[in-house]
Write a sequence for this structure.
C-alpha cells in the first residue's frame, strides 16, 4: 500500500492564462490551482499538469451477475468482474455508493492492480466481461481504457456503468473500448440534475445520442425513481417518449427503487407500484424492453417478446429461471429477434456475489 496515491499523466486538459489547468473530461471544466483536486477528487493539478491520482488502484473487486449492472440484454447469466476507484464528477444527494464515490481517502483504494493483471484475473475467474462501476469510470478514463485494451486482447468484454457526464472528445476515446454501457438517466428534468445531482441534463442526452447513433456499444438505461422528485407520470411519459424518438424502441430501460441514503434519508423508499407504473408508461410509449429493479418483481424483471408477448428470459432477481431464445437470439415462439448481445446458451453464474483479491493472481 502506498502512503500517497501515485499520479498518472491525465489526458484532456489545457493550461489557462493564469497558469491554472482546466480539466476537459467532463462538463464541469474544473479550473485548478497547483495542488488542487477537481470535484471528482481524483484529477489534480500537480506541477502545472493534470494527473490522475487513482491509476492502478481500486476500492475492491467482486464477481457479479451481469444483470446486477443492470444489463439484461448483454450476455445474460454471465459473470462480470466489477471494480471501481474513488470519487465522482456528480454530487447526487441520493448516492447509493457514497462511501466510495464521495471518498477523499486513498485508503479506500484497497487493491493495486495493473491493467494486465485485471484482464488476466477476469480470464482465470471465468468472467466474460469486466465492469467499470461503483463510481463513475469517466473520471478514471485513462485507467479504464488501459484495462479495456488488455481485456480485448483476451476476448474479455468491457462494461461501463456511468452517468454519461462526459465531454464529446473524451467520450469518443472512452467508448471506443467499451462493449456495453448502462447509463444512469437520473431524471428528465434540468432542475433535478442541477439541484439534486449537481450537474446538467443536456450533456447526458448528448452522450446517449452519441452512443446509440455513432457507436456499436450495447446500451441500456437506468432511472432510480425517488418519491416526490422524479416519479411523476408526466416526467416518465416525457422521458420515455424521448428515448423512443431519439434512441429507438430497442434500448432497454430499468426503473429502479430508491432506498434512503447519503443526504436523502428523509425520503421514503420507492413503492413497487411506482416502478410498475413507470414500466407500463414506457411500454405504452413504445419501449420494447422495460424493467423494474431493486425490488422483487418477477414479471417486471423478465424479458418479453415485443411481438407475441412470450416470456423470453424468465428472471427472479438476478437468477435466470427460463430461456426461450434460440441460438440466434430469436423468440422460440414466433421467431422475432430480441435486441441484445446473446451467446448461443445463457450463462449459469446465478445471483451470487463473490469478492476476490487480485493479489492471488500476481
Amino acid at each position: 500500500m502506498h502512503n500517497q496515491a501515485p499520479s498518472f499523466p491525465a489526458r484532456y486538459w489545457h493550461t489557462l492564462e493564469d497558469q491554472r489547468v482546466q480539466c476537459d473530461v467532463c462538463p464541469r471544466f474544473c479550473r485548478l490551482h497547483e495542488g488542487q483536486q477537481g470535484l471528482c477528487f481524483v484529477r489534480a493539478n500537480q506541477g502545472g499538469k493534470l494527473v490522475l491520482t487513482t491509476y492502478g488502484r481500486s476500492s475492491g473487486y467482486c464477481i457479479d451477475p451481469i444483470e446486477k449492472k443492470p444489463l439484461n440484454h448483454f450476455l445474460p447469466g454471465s459473470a462480470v468482474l466489477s471494480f471501481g476507484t474513488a470519487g465522482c464528477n456528480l454530487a447526487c444527494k441520493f448516492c447509493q455508493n457514497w462511501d466510495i464515490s464521495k471518498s477523499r481517502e486513498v485508503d479506500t483504494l484497497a487493491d493495486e492492480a495493473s491493467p494486465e493483471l485485471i484482464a488476466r484475473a477476469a480470464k482465470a475467474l471465468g468472467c466474460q466481461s469486466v465492469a467499470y462501476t461503483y463510481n463513475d469510470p469517466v473520471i478514471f478514463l485513462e485507467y479504464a481504457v488501459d484495462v479495456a485494451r488488455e481485456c480485448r486482447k483476451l476476448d474479455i468484454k468491457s462494461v461501463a456503468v456511468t452517468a454519461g457526464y462526459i465531454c464529446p472528445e473524451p467520450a469518443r476515446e472512452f467508448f471506443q473500448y467499451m462493449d456495453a454501457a448502462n447509463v444512469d438517466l437520473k431524471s428528465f428534468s434540468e432542475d433535478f440534475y442541477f439541484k439534486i445531482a449537481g450537474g446538467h441534463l443536456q450533456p447526458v442526452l448528448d452522450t446517449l445520442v452519441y452512443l446509440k447513433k455513432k457507436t456499436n456499444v450495447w446500451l441500456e438505461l437506468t432511472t432510480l425513481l425517488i418519491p416526490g422528485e422524479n416519479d411523476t407520470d408526466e416526467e416518465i411519459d416525457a422521458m420515455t417518449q424521448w428515448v423512443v424518438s431519439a434512441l429507438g424502441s430497442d434500448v432497454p430501460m430499468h426503473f429502479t427503487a430508491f432506498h434512503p441514503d447519503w443526504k436523502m434519508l428523509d425520503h421514503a423508499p420507492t413503492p413497487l407500484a411506482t416502478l410498475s407504473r413507470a414500466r407500463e408508461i414506457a411500454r405504452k410509449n413504445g419501449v420494447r424492453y422495460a424493467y423494474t429493479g431493486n425490488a422483487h418483481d418477477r414479471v417486471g424483471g423478465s424479458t418479453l417478446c415485443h411481438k407475441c408477448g412470450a416470456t423470453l428470459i424468465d428472471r427472479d432477481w438476478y437468477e435466470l429461471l427460463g430461456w426461450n431464445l434460440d441460438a440466434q437470439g430469436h423468440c422460440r415462439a414466433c421467431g422475432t429477434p430480441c435486441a441484445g448481445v446473446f451467446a448461443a446458451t445463457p450463462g449459469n453464474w446465478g445471483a451470487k456475489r463473490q469478492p476476490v483479491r487480485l493479489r492471488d493472481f500476481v
